[in-house]
Design brief:
- It contains nine helices and 18 strands.
- By secondary structure, it is of the alpha+beta class.
- The chain has two domains: 2-133, Histone H3 K4-specific methyltransferase SET7/9 N-terminal domain (Single Sheet); 138-315, Rossmann fold, CATH 3.40.50.300.
- The strands form three sheets. Strands 1, 2, 3, 4, 5, 6, 7, 8 and 9 form a nine-stranded antiparallel sheet that branches. Strands 15-16-14-17-18 form a five-stranded parallel sheet, with helices on both faces. Strands 10-11-12-13 form a four-stranded antiparallel sheet, with no helix packed on it.
- A hairpin with a 5-residue loop joins strand 11 (104-108) and strand 12 (114-121).
- Helix 3 (160-173) crosses helix 9 and helix 5 (198-217) packs parallel to helix 6 (231-241).
- It is elongated, with a radius of gyration of 26 Å.
- The N and C termini lie far apart (57 Å).
- Mean pLDDT is 79; it is low at 1-7, 89-96 and 124-135.
């Protein structure tokens, strides 16, 4: 087996072949550094990885395959640094950035999708490939929509939830794939252990933003209905989701109007000192400075608000999807 391996893929003259063909074979210099090609196989005999090293650092073309023999990733390195083109699941793309976190290196696409993660153990790379089986183009094929998150913010009782579910129904009727993330519903499950302190509110919104980003990566339109009183927390959500996909919508209503029309009893409790974290009373609500849309909810029905949002989606070319054309 070693003679066969040397005939088909010889190590550089100053490196020696080590390992077991069919499992893991690499070229090692006398000082112990990798130099040349390393090949790793799956248990079924299919090649899993073909990595190239120069003086102990990744260099040149590095390829991984799935167990069915289909190429998963191809990454080009130069002296250990990510460099040049990347091919994932047969689609040419380009690595946007790489980041080192302790025992791992993570590569990201421009749209924020994780591309590749290399985990090291005892100084040796243990490779985990994050492969987008279907690209966003595939998800959009046959759908007349682009990915976006509509983030409805406003005081409690301003009408965010009513607008969110009315919009969901209209979009569904028009053939859109849509997901609603409602603050109250998330607290019944995903965020059930979180309270209403500043740090817990921030974590509540961070998780929601991460879910929205994953749904957007799959081509869905996402509607988020959260009071999200802090401008900083909304900014963090925009950074997680991506500013090009994040549309901030202000459900604008005065504190007085929300109190007068309150059916939950929250404002009455807050006024009696039984609730100290209600936006507008116990904590400050920071209205958006430059939202994509402001809806005056006291004078606007949920259906009329939905029409305004659908106009916004149409103007932005999100729904129906307007393909960009070269100038």
């Amino acid at each position: 087996m070693q003679e066969w391996w040397n005939n088909t893929n010889p190590c550089p003259p100053n490196a020696t072949l080590t390992g077991t063909p069919g499992k893991d074979v690499r070229c090692i210099k006398s000082d112990g550094t990798q130099h040349g090609r390393q090949t790793v196989w799956f248990n079924n005999g299919q090649i899993a990885q073909e990595l190239n090293f120069q003086e102990g650092k990744r260099h040149g073309r590095n390829i991984t395959w799935n167990e069915d023999g289909k190429k998963a990733t191809e990454v080009h390195y130069a002296a250990g640094e990510l460099h040049g083109a990347m091919i994932v699941c047969g689609e040419p793309t380009r690595i946007h950035r790489d980041e080192r976190k302790g025992d791992r290196i993570i590569g990201w696409y421009e749209d924020g999708q994780k591309a590749e993660e290399i985990i090291f153990k005892d100084g040796k790379p243990e490779h985990t490939s994050f492969c987008r089986r279907l690209s966003l183009t595939h998800y959009q094929h046959g759908k007349e929509q682009g990915p976006a998150t509509l983030w409805l913010t406003g005081l409690v009782g301003a009408g965010k939830t009513a607008i969110a579910y009315t919009l969901e129904q209209h979009l569904f009727d028009l053939g859109a794939a849509v997901l609603v993330l409602d603050g109250e519903n998330l607290r019944l499950g995903v965020n059930r252990e979180l309270g209403f302190t500043d740090s817990e509110r921030a974590e509540h919104l961070r998780r929601a933003a991460e879910i929205a980003r994953l749904a957007n990566d799959s081509g869905l339109l996402v509607i988020c209905a959260f009071a999200s009183p802090s401008a900083a927390s909304r900014q963090l959500a925009a950074e997680i989701i991506g500013s090009d996909r994040f549309l901030e919508i202000h459900a604008k209503a005065s504190l007085e109007w929300c109190e007068q029309h309150d059916t939950s009893g929250l404002y009455a409790r807050a006024r009696k000192g039984l609730l100290d974290d209600l936006p507008g009373i116990g904590i400050t609500y920071e209205p958006p400075v430059n939202p994509a849309l402001t809806i005056d909810t006291p004078g606007t029905t949920p259906d009329a608000a939905t029409t305004q949002i659908l106009d916004l989606l149409r103007d932005r070319g999100i729904f129906p999807l307007r393909e960009s054309k070269p100038v």
